[in-house]
Every structure is written in C-alpha cells, then in structure tokens.
Amino acid sequence: MKRCPLLILLACLSCALWPFPAHSGPAEIERVLRLEQEQAEQREQEIRRLSKEQNKLSQRLRSIDERIRVNSARVADQQAALDKIRADEARTREQYFGLEREKKRTEGELMGLMATLWPVHMQNIEQRFRGVGTWDAADRRFTWLAGIYKATRDKLAQAREQARKVAENLEAQRELEQEAGRRLAVVNKTKDDLLRDKLLFRSRLSEVRTKRTDLETELRDILEAIQELNYQLSTQKTKRFAGHKRNLPWPVAGKVVGDFDLEADPPMRGLGMSVAEAGEPVKCVFWGKVVHNDTLRGFGQVIIVYHGYDYYSLYAFLSESFVQSGQEVEKDETIGRAGYYPRAQGPGLYFELRFRQKPINPIFWLSALRKAQGQ
User: Fold this and answer.
1) What are residue 260's phi and psi, to 5 degrees?
2) CA atoms within 13 A of residue 347's CA, in its CB half-sphere
3) Domains and CATH numbers, the chain
4) d(Cα 318, Cα 292) in Å, to the nearest integer?
5) Which helix (H) or strand (E) covers residue 308, if one does?
6) Whether the bond into 266 is cis, omega within 30 of 0
7) Mean pLDDT per segment of 10 residues, for the chain of length 375 residues?
8) C-alpha Rg value of the chain to the nearest Å
9) pTM, rounded to two decimals
C-alpha cells in the first residue's frame, strides 16, 4: 500500500525538528539560564574591575596633565633662559670678532711703531748721540724717543689686554655653550618624560576601554539571552500545547463537512470544513514555528506549524499563504486564506493535529463553543 505523501512529509519534519529548541524542557532551560547568569555575573565583576582600573588610569592621566601644566611654566622659563644664553652667546661672539679686529689693528699700529722705533734705536746705539750739537736738540730727540717708546709700550700693553679679553671671551663662549647644552638637556628630558608617561597611560587606558566595551557587548548579549530564556521559561507553562486541550480556537469560521475517522476508507485523519466564501482568513490555532509552506500532492497549498513537544498543526487547500518557512507565528495569527476544498465542493479547509506523527482528533482539542458557533 502506498504511503500518504503527508505522512512521509511529517516523518521527515519530525527528524529535521529533533533539535528544535521547543523540545527543551523547563529543567534544561533553567540549567542553561543558570550558566548564562553565572557568565553575566563574571562579566559584571570584570567590568567593575576594569571600571576601577579605568578610573585610576584617568586619575593618573589627570595628574600627568596637571604636572605638564605645572611644568609648562618651568619649561617656558628654561626655554627663555636658553634663549637668553643663546643671545648672550651671539653677543659674545660679536664681541669676540670686534676684539679680534681691534687686536689686529693694535698689532698693526705696534708693528708700525716698531718699524719706526727700531732704526732710531739702532742709530742711537751706533752714534751715541753724535751730531747733537746743543742741549735743546738732545732734549728734543730724547723727548721724541721717549714718546715713541711710551707709545710702543702702551700699544704693547693694549695688545696684551686685548689678547686677555679674547681669551676670556673664548672661555665665556665655552661656558655659555656648556650651560646652553645643560639647559637644553633638562628641557628635553622634562618634555620626554612627561610625554612618555602620558603616552603609556593613554595606551593602557585605551586597552582598558576597548576590553570594557567588548565585555559590555558580551554582557548585553548574555542579558538578552537570559531575557529570552526567562521568556521561554515563563511561556513553557502557558504555551505548552498539551495544556490547552479543548481550548484551541478554530482555524476558520465554517462548517464541518468531514469528521476525523481513521477507520474510513480512505482514513480521515483530520477535519474538513467548508466556508462561506473563498479567501476566508485561516488562523493558526497555537504559538509555533512554520516548518512547511508549499504545495503537496493531493492537498494543494499546505502550511504545517510545529508547536513544540512533538505537536503539529496542518492547514491544507489554501488559496494564499502569508507566512514563510522558519517564521514564528502567534496564536490566532492569520497565516493564509481558504481555497477550493474538493470535499466541500467549494471553498474550505482541511485541518489536522498530530502528535509524534500520529493524527489526533481535533474535535477533542478545539473549543466546543467555537464548534457550536461554526455549526
């Protein structure tokens, strides 16, 4: 005997849906929930630790910034002193060049005097004042020679003084250069130390902030998972299919034209219903997930919804579908429209309920009040 395509489809869906989350009972959800809560607590503790570390680093950075601000004046003073030393060095260098020029001029004048004095001196030594007839002439020559000697001594003393000043000037330049180097080293070291500390703490602060942000993201994801698990846990009691027997809404407003009868030939595994007109809205009888939304040979357009704990509902001979496979649907949500149903010889719906692939009589699950109204 050939197996019904619908039975084959449900068997395949049962295998495919084994890992579906709805199989997880309250005990399993509570276990996972505890694990998630432990992870959330760990993340919160780590975030608190990182927050403290971040605050400490921020305080250290503020302290460094304050030190930089305080030292900025000292750095400015050092820079000003350095600039003054450089200016003094420039002036000293100008003075050195001036002294060099003065020294060379004095040396030139001294050479001129020496050129004048030396022949006279040699002549005096040779002649011993021969040719000087009177005392006045001798006095004039003596006075003249004395003046030349004095001028020569003065220029020689001036040259020595200028040489001393040049030597002092050179020493002053050397000391100024050394002092400028020391000041510059102090300025640079102060700047380097502050900037290095600031860079170090900024780098660490950036690492802490990044790690804290990552942990906060993880914590947010964990809290969302906890919220979802709490939702699943809270709805397990209210959304368990088995707890709504004789209280399910009817999928469509219509009249039963085919009763559940497994002994019939062929067997009737669900309810057949006729509706007043084509396009009547078909509603899902319980919360669940769409696991099939396609045509099926002998049943037209078919939607199958899985409600967890091995319960399924099936809606066949639809003219239109409003859902997609994998979509979660709510109770009383419109999932399609009724189409042509052969048993009704017009618009209608074929509806099944199944538990572990076995058909169960929908009459024992649907609301009696709605049935009476439908009839």
Assistant:
1) -65, 125
2) 16
3) 46-220 (1.10.287), 246-374 (2.70.70.10)
4) 13
5) none
6) yes
7) 59 50 61 79 84 84 79 73 75 73 72 66 56 59 67 74 76 78 78 81 83 82 73 64 88 94 92 95 95 92 93 96 94 96 96 94 82 44
8) 56
9) 0.45
